[in-house]
Q: What sequence folds into this?
């Protein structure tokens, strides 16, 4: 058996046993960790638990279509590299897949050469990936802040935020390395016509937002303001 070459985890979603086992043998030689799923429900369970860095997914599955699975994942994860496999050369399905920002869209039967090229592209995308291009911020307990739609998710379910809670979390997540002053928060959330006690309003807003996040994520810097703490 060849030594594993790539420091990525991979999830292979394919309902046909013979095809799945054939490719799993190859993947297990090449990647640090390989997961397999024969249907969409199991695939989503594995994804939520392990967050694989590369997903290879058949479009036709017995319970949930591959497109539906990837739409769920793409709601808050734009970093994982996805390779779609399909028996169709249907332009409509191709257009739907393109919206999901795939690394590759391969029509079955897929040659080993084409699959290797697609995987190489996934590796290159990771190698060229810059911190400034990140689309999500991961907290503990599987909480995720999506920078693209300014939404908070927990276990792939959206956490309902009030408009001001969303504004505040957007500000705090924009730069997690600095303390946001009370004045900065006030100017970001309220306009000049707001006549209530803004400092007290911040305390109430922080208190309510903390209830919707893992503990100790928002830290109060005494006399200065608040910041996000990623542990």
A:
């Amino acid at each position: 058996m060849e030594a594993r070459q790539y420091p990525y985890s991979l999830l292979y979603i394919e309902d046909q046993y013979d095809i799945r086992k054939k490719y799993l043998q190859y993947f297990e030689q090449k990647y640090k960790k390989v997961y397999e799923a024969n249907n969409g429900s199991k695939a989503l369970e594995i994804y939520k638990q392990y967050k694989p860095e590369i997903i290879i997914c058949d479009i036709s599955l017995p319970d949930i279509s591959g497109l539906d699975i990837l739409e769920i994942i793409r709601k808050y994860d734009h970093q994982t590299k996805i390779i779609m496999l399909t028996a169709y050369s249907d332009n409509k399905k191709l257009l739907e897949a393109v919206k999901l920002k795939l690394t590759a869209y391969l029509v079955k039967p897929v040659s080993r050469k084409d699959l290797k090229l697609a995987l190489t592209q996934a590796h290159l995308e990771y190698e060229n990936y810059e911190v400034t291009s990140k689309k999500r911020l991961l907290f503990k307990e599987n909480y995720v802040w999506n920078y693209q739609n300014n939404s908070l998710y927990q276990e792939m379910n959206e956490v309902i935020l009030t408009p001001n809670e969303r504004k505040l979390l957007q500000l705090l997540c924009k730069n997690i390395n600095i303390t946001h002053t009370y004045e900065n928060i006030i100017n970001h959330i309220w306009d000049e016509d707001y006549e209530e006690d803004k400092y007290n309003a911040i305390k109430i807003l922080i208190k309510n937002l903390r209830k919707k996040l893992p503990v100790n994520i928002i830290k109060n810097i005494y006399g200065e303001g608040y910041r996000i703490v990623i542990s």
The longest helix spans residues 112-127.
